[in-house]
Predict the structure.
Amino acid sequence: MTLPFLDLQPTYAASRPAIDAALARVAASGWFILGRELEAFERQWADYCGSAHALGLGNGLDALHLGLRALGVGEGDEVIVPSNTYIATWLAVSQCGARPVPVEPDVRTYNLDPARIEAAITPRTRVILPVHLYGQPADMDAINAIARWHGLKVLDDCAQAHAARWRGRRVGALADASAWSFYPGKNLGAMGDGGGLTTDDAGVADAVRVLRNYGSRVKYHNEVKGLNSRLDEMQAAVLAAKLPALDALTDQRRQIAACLLDGLAGAPVGLPFVPDGAEPAWHLFVIRHEARDRLQAALAERGVGTLIHYPVPPHLQPAYAELGYAAGDFPVAEAIHREVLSLPLWPGMSEAQVAHLIDAVRSVA
Ligand SMILES: *Cc1c(COP(=O)(O)O)cnc(C)c1O
């Protein structure tokens, strides 16, 4: 049996008639940018998240960048970011001319450790940027409380956390603004690049609406130096067609995750830890093992595809040499990056595939 790391076909099958109709509808409409499809999806996504406003954007990186700019981040400012995250979280800060200030995660949840945030706050800090990594919601109550106390804003990176809940409330309405990616492999994915921002703040929504369209409210009149970063009509229509299936697909992820947690209990691997109050979206099922590379190779021999999220932490990337960090500066993140391995977990995985995965991990770990 072979088990690919990810197969998007069952997710397509779950909404295929609606997706195919949406693509045909947009093609026939002759209108491809900033139209009715986008407006409809923005309304649906805002309602789904329980947020007042949603804006469709070109991709997740732009969503983070424009969200930060709308919250007032600029040249010389500092933004608190996790030391373990996808590079996009840091790049968005740099694109504002600001400096990413890394804070170590809680080693069990992989999310920003609220107890370590205050030590990183300086007079230049503007925003705290937690990431709901692997689909596990961060402790937003603690993070929001710290931000309020210090007069800071919170933007959360929700790229991996569609439909996740923290203390019963959906991620996407728990911060001053929330940034989304609809990259094809995310839990709600387009058929190309896509991103979005949700917020209850009408001023933030208005600023992002202008920034995503060349800094222009009225065509050919430019108030600020904006970007071209709009969710196009095809992608908006695809996302609207897929949204009704998101809850059922997330339930499937939760069921598979429960089977894996059960089947791997007692095996010599570190399993995902779900704190009280967290309902993860299970974007990724990440285990830890001291001999991670050997485990990955042995699973590949048994036909099981795995990936590493992520092999190199941002502070050790050549792209961030300018910050002058060295190995050992963020030991929690570095240990995580050395040991994590993401197992296959996608809607449509069969019981036999889940059983095969459990057997394979148990026999090689
Ligand atoms: C995917 C991802 C992004 C970036 O999204 P894109 O749409 O690929 O630009 C940002 N942050 C995290 C945590 C991600 O997983």
